[in-house]
Amino acid sequence: MTEITDFNKTKLANSLGMAKKAGKIATGEELVIKSIQADRARLVFVAHDGAPNLVKRITDKTTYYEIPMLDIFSAAELSHAIGSDRKVIAVQDKGFAKKMESLMK
């Protein structure tokens, strides 16, 4: 995992908030898994402090379906970014996903 600056982490969180306002995310374990299986998910965020079985399940799905997954946020940070209590988020828009991935470089 590459090291990410606090500045870019803040920009990533802001981008997640914008994606939520635009209706371009799926949240919660079941909806994210359905999004992955339906080939709608472009980038998945899972809280690094989420339950081990949740992290494993999401990791397995994203690996199998070859979808990038990031675990740089805590559950509190993810929840704060989108304004609701969540541990896993799928970005379903290519534009938002591309911008977020560019912040990782």
UniProtKB/TrEMBL annotation:
This is YlxQ-related RNA-binding protein. Residues 11-99 form the Ribosomal protein eL8/eL30/eS12/Gadd45 domain. The lineage of its organism: Bacteria, Bacillati, Bacillota, Bacilli, Lactobacillales. Pfam families: Ribosomal_L7Ae (PF01248). It comes from Pseudolactococcus laudensis. It comes from the Bacteria.
